[in-house]
UniProtKB/TrEMBL annotation:
Upper taxonomic lineage: Bacteria, Pseudomonadati, Pseudomonadota, Alphaproteobacteria, Rhodobacterales
GO MF, any single term: ribosomal large subunit binding
PANTHER family: MITOCHONDRIAL RIBOSOME RECYCLING FACTOR PSEUDO 1, RIBOSOME RECYCLING FACTOR
Organism: Rubricella aquisinus
Coiled-coil ranges (or none): none
Protein name: Ribosome-recycling factor
Amino acid sequence: MSDEIEIDIDALAKRMDGALNSLKGDFASLRTGRASGNMLDAIEVEAYGANMPINQCATINVPEPRMITVSVWDKGLVGAVEKAIRNSGLGINPVMDGTTLRLPIPELNEERRRDLTKVAGQYAESARVAVRNVRRDGMDQVKKAKSDGMGEDEQKLYQDEIEEITKAHIATIDQALEAKQAEIMQV
């Protein structure tokens, strides 16, 4: 058994945590019938000859549960921001009021709720795949360490530890998905 060969389990766990954090961001952008500034995070505005996130050219506020306001900083970009929101696929029709856009959030119907639960499932599956990729990388490190002289007992311990953190992260993803789907289907 060699003391020099060591697998950094903490680094693998941090990478898996990154997949969870990404999933939480994806879930925050899903519409649940309540207004949230995160709904607009994925929208890119064509401004100054380049695409930029909407939050880099406007201030996003949620003054009430069913309304989002977008205050555009440059008057010349109001039309571009409105067009980006309309074409985003969120199903929101902005109302222009000078340099401010008001976005009334409509109630979700049953069909749209089911569609959103499917999207949430896709986000969760992407996170599971990311976690499994980290597990594969960890297992590859263990195999390489074995060929570099790691003992079989030590190899088995590392493999078991990697499997354990993988299962814990997958379980957390599944719990987050169930909670998000319940939130989406709540009327």
